[in-house]
Write a structure and sequence with these properties.
This protein is mostly helical and 396 residues long. It has a domain of 273 residues: ABC transporter involved in vitamin B12 uptake, BtuC (Orthogonal Bundle), CATH 1.10.3470. 66% of the residues lie in helices and 5% in strands. It has 15 helices and six strands. A two-stranded antiparallel sheet has the order 1-6. A two-stranded antiparallel sheet has the order 2-3. It has a two-stranded antiparallel ribbon with strand order 4-5. The model has no long low-confidence stretch (mean pLDDT 89).
Length: 396
């Protein structure tokens, strides 16, 4: 921490503050109000923000730093989930063995896939990773049914070995007795703030993952990855073998994905093949691009952005819309609801697509570019204000 630059320290402290204060920040509207629909401070969604943030941070090390676009990272997410659930079935419901195995198995799996895929670059690399992910999905769905339980999904049953379990053991996922599902609700006036054990455990891993990413970004290894992204051919001409660096980045990124999969299974002890589909890999890419590939906080913002729309806008149906516009004349109310219902509920992807297009067109650097523009505008405004005040102040 002491060796970090001041700007990096501020960034890390900002992430820590957001993670700790999330129950307050994500519940700005009073319970029971019309705008409470947009609150996101409930346990399930906050957990999603955290472990998908870990996933996006890891993917950013490969794509943002190295420039290698993988469409197969969902395979490592699924492998991590399956590994964690198997630990629950064999040993017990403490999440630590499951998370450790998730990271190890995802690392080995990513090493095998990366060793083959990184023989190519550009679009050919992306297609290879996509092919491996789809093969992994097909095998989990049908071929490896004894290990994955096929389309039903892998889950914990009462007759599983669970060698560390006894009559007094906790039968739900926990961290040394702290149950993932335990939630404390703080009522302050019309507001209800929920503090969930599972979320804060995920948040701790998110902070640790962000710190590790920060150290990688500022390390000589990170500088080498940036050089590879800038011009890998020139590096090869200088006699530097870039493959060990790209393979290391791929494996680290895969281990991040395995950790995210393990956390996902720790919150809900069920692993299914759908987590390995190409659509899940595409969602990871969207998270990183929306937030800002190559930036530190951008992928976390992108993950939160997409998960917010998925969980909040998808719940807005015609009944909710009619409640919002009930004060209007019936004809106008029905017309507005008819138009808006295409963009919410089942049509929330349309809204997300339009926002994605707008960000790509007007903010090619993602949400972080927008934040930087606002910051620069504010600095320029303050500088102009100081200059004008200095000119109007009479000299003594």
């Amino acid at each position: 921490m002491k060796s970090l630059a001041k700007s990096d320290k501020r960034t890390l402290l900002f992430v820590i503050f957001i993670a700790i204060a999330a129950p307050f920040l994500l519940n700005p509207f009073p319970e029971g109000s019309a705008m409470a629909q947009f609150n996101a401070g409930y346990p399930d969604l906050m957990q999603r923000f955290a472990y998908f943030g870990v996933l996006a941070i890891g993917f950013n090390i490969l794509f943002g730093l190295t420039g290698y676009l993988s469409f197969g990272h969902a395979a490592f997410l699924g492998v991590g989930s399956y590994s964690a659930v198997w630990m629950f079935k064999l040993l017990g419901m403490n999440i630590i063995p499951g998370l450790i195995l998730s990271v190890i198995v995802a690392g080995i799996f990513s090493l095998l896939i990366g060793y083959i895929s990184l023989r190519r670059s550009g679009i050919y690399f992306s297609i290879l990773t996509l092919a491996f992910a789809q093969m992994s999905f097909a095998m989990a769905y049908s071929v490896l049914t004894p290990l994955t339980n096929g389309e039903t999904g892998l889950q914990v049953y009462a007759d599983d070995p669970q060698v560390f379990m006894n009559e007094n053991s906790i039968a739900v996922p926990h961290l040394f007795g702290l149950k993932m599902q335990d939630t404390f609700t703080l009522d302050i006036g019309p507001w209800a703030f929920q503090f969930n054990i599972g979320y804060y455990i995920c948040a701790l891993f998110l902070i640790a993952a962000f710190y590790m990413s920060l150290r990688i970004f500022r390390s000589p290894f990170g500088l080498m990855l940036r050089a590879i992204k800038t011009n890998q051919t020139r590096l090869n001409y200088t006699g530097i073998n870039t493959r060990p660096y790209t393979l290391a980045a791929f494996v680290i990124s895969g281990m991040y994905a395995g950790l995210a999969g393990g956390l996902m299974a720790s919150m809900d002890p069920l692993a299914g093949a759908e987590r390995m589909q190409w659509t899940a890999s595409g969602e990871i890419v969207l998270m990183t691009i929306l937030g800002g590939a190559g930036t530190l906080i951008g992928p976390v913002l992108g993950a939160g952005f997409i998960k917010y729309f998925e969980n909040i806008f998808s719940k807005i149906n015609e009944t909710v819309l009619h409640g919002w516009f009930a004060f209007l004349p019936d004809g106008l109310e029905n017309a507005i609801v008819w138009v808006l219902h295409f963009f919410v509920g089942k049509g929330w992807h349309l809204t997300l697509g339009l926002l994605f297009m707008a960000i790509v067109i007007f903010l090619p650097g993602g949400l972080m570019e927008g934040a930087q523009r606002i910051g620069n505008w504010w600095k320029n405004r303050r500088a102009k204000g100081k200059t004008s005040s200095a000119k109007t102040t009479p000299a003594e």
